[in-house]
Give the backbone structure.
Amino acid sequence: MAEIKGIDVSTHQGTLNWDSLKKDVDFAVIRAGYGGGGADGHFARNWSECRRLGIPRMAYFYAYPGRSGGQTQAEEFFSRVGVLQAGEGVALDIEDDTAYGRALVASDVQWCLD
């Protein structure tokens, strides 16, 4: 079976050299931001560099149910990602909100679905 290599990136990796990475990765999963108004400062560049180089990509968003409604966070997410092209995807990454002292609870599943 062939090995498929992906990379998960956010502002925490700093400014990446996508031209160099292209030979080592088959796809990228890129953080767009997080609930409550947090934009990933490197998202726009990472997103456009992958598109420029033809690296398949997916955007993800850290969701925090305790900070605001699901609709609000979904709108925030898609305003950053824009129109998807064929083969691109999105994912929701729901997280404990330890900064606010809130653990995930069973009702958060419904929050995601709403």
Observations:
- The mean pLDDT is 89.
- The chain is about 30% helix and 25% strand.
- Helices lie at 18-21, 43-53, 70-81, 107-113.
